[in-house]
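queue> holo job accepted (pyridoxal-5'-phosphate)
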Amino acid sequence: MQDFDHIYPRVDTDSVKWDSIKTTYGKDDLVPLWVADMDFMAPAPVIDALSDYTKRGLFGYSLVPDALYQAIFDWEKTHYDYSLEKEDILFSPGVVPSIGVAIQAYTQPGDSILIHDPVYHPFANMVKANERNLVTSPLGIEDGHFVMDLTDMEAKIKNNQVKMLILCNPHNPGGRVWTKAELIACGLLCQQYGVLVVSDEIHQDLVFAPHQHHSFHTLAPDFADFSIILTAATKTFNLAAVKLSMVYIKNKELRAAFQKVQSTTEQNTINTFGYVATQAAYEKGEPWRQDLLTYLAENSRYTEAFFKEHLPQVKVMAPEGTYLMWLDFRAYDLSPKALEDKLVQEAGVVLNNGAIFGNGGRGFMRLNLACPRETLAEGLERIRKIFG
Ligand SMILES: Cc1ncc(COP(=O)(O)O)c(C=O)c1O
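queue> job finished
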């Protein structure tokens, strides 16, 4: 079993999480609990597969191995009862690049695209960068968890003639694992108004029992007609650097339109290291993932208990999935900038400012739990000293 308590030095490794702190904040003695990657070593079978490939020293153009397709079929079927065929699967260098392709393939400049607020900030960035009209629907908070406001969504869809919903399933930054009933209700609404759903499922494998991820395509037989799924092994197995994601499209016309945009820039031929790593992760990474989930769940409980005991003014949204925790600092009545400054300059901890995820994130911060407990404990202790 991997020792998730082990601290690997990441400073001076060109890590965004660790090495951009100095340029961003002018300090290098900060505890980084921000950028969504993990301070853990990748699964040993993935490292072995990449080493074997590297040692061969032959880096010519490569085909997509049949074994990779098989690994994807098996993974999706075993965990989510989701059946895929080879033709349903396209590859892309990332989920965010795929969002850009989907926007260009299925909408025109000026068209309205709906996202939730708050939500993973590149959704809004991609909509705006592609000169589409950004429409947001605020998430409510019930029993300490985010919920969709279907009445608001319907009004926004009707009033703005929304063409596309970009859905975060499970939800970043709230760690919400939408239930089957919630997803079906959302899907039926989109179906009724002809809204195409782009379901970002990159956090699908990071879900804590008893919660269960549901791929949008498995909710009803005809949901695949008006939706596409974006996912990857990179978030689950800490492989962001290999830049490979999958796009699952069952509707032939939607697939052809996506491929047409991809082909304009040859974005469909991908880094072979991505193929190798993804195949190994899906074939042999499951024991590592189970251990990871146990460790993350314990980090989540530890953090929740810490805030309850030492800083009850900070309200914690305990994640049902993802390794991200949404913290409500509104009791301190600070502007987003003042809150971030206090955390960085006084406490010495870097979290993601909630305001980047939308207006609903003002006064909140997102904490990344995927680090050794000692690092987490140090970060929390620093927050307690300043906010306690
Ligand atoms: C919801 C969500 N989508 C996409 C990504 C990034 O995906 P990629 O690196 O494949 O572009 C992240 C990374 O944190 C994420 O949280």
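queue> The chain is about 40% helix and 15% strand.
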